[in-house]
Design goal:
Elements lengths: L3 E5 L4 H17 L2 E8 L4 H6 L5 H16 L5 E7 L2 H12 L3 E5 L14 H8 L4 E4 L1
Parallel strand pairs: 1-2, 1-4, 2-3, 4-5
InterPro entries: Rossmann-like_a/b/a_fold, Universal_stress_UspA, UspA
Pfam family, one: Usp
Protein name: Universal stress protein
Length: 135
């Protein structure tokens, strides 16, 4: 049923809590698991202050998530992309033929417009496949 599951992750508590649901579904359906971290292109302000997320932090986040799943005998592929999170998540889901996207209800990706236009909301509206939101 869910041959390929995409799990976009960030450093939020909600993403960490969603990992348990991801593990259960992937094991139940013997799915291919793809972990994705999307780094937004830095704004001029972030470039000048150095407050953007470093590639090393993202690589460590993906490595830690991959290790977490491998401890449960779940192989996980990792992808790191740069772009607008919601659009990138949906593009990757389409590229890999994802049957399901699983994500936390709130991550670190609130847009300038606020919670009503969160990354999660945008993914729900743009996704090429079903989206499971973990509260």
């Amino acid at each position: 049923m869910f041959k390929t599951v995409l799990f976009p992750i960030d450093q939020s508590r909600e993403a960490r809590e969603a990992a348990e649901v991801v593990a259960n579904i992937v094991q139940k359906y013997n799915s291919r698991l793809v972990l994705l971290s999307v780094v937004e292109e830095p704004s001029p302000e972030e470039l000048s202050t150095g407050s953007m997320v470093s590639p090393e932090v993202v690589a460590k986040l993906l490595e830690n998530a991959q290790t977490l799943f491998s401890q449960q005998d779940i192989p996980a592929e990792i992808l790191e992309k740069q772009g607008k999170p919601a659009f990138t998540i949906c593009d990757v889901a389409d590229e890999i033929g994802a049957d399901l996207i699983i994500m936390g209800c709130r991550g670190l990706g609130l847009t300038e417009e606020g919670a009503t236009d969160s990354v999660t909301t945008r993914v729900i509206n743009l996704s090429p496949c079903p989206v499971l939101i973990v509260p």
